[in-house]
Design a protein that fits this description.
82 residues; alpha+beta; two-stranded parallel sheet; 4 helices; 12% strand; globular
């Protein structure tokens, strides 16, 4: 939940529209139909299979969006920006 809030604030500060949700790792498959990008810890990201057109971003420090923000913004810009 804390990661969701921090990433949301990061995206808001950059004017990036978004809708976010959070779930336990075991439940991520139930969210895939309505999810484009999953942000997870690096050690769990490798276990996730998002499917075509979906992305998993594995991060070292989940509570510091500045440490992975450029990569997240790159995924958004290259795949979802109109």
């Amino acid at each position: 939940m804390m990661m969701k809030m921090k990433i949301g604030k990061f995206l808001e500060q950059r004017g990036v529209p978004h809708v976010m949700d959070s779930c336990a790792v075991a439940d991520y498959k139930t969210k895939l139909q309505t999810t484009d990008i999953i942000v997870s810890s690096k050690h769990l990201a490798g276990e996730m299979i998002p499917g075509e057109g979906k992305f998993v971003l594995g991060v070292q420090n989940m509570l510091n969006p500045n440490s992975f923000g450029d990569e997240l913004l790159g995924i958004i810009k290259n795949n979802f920006a109109n």
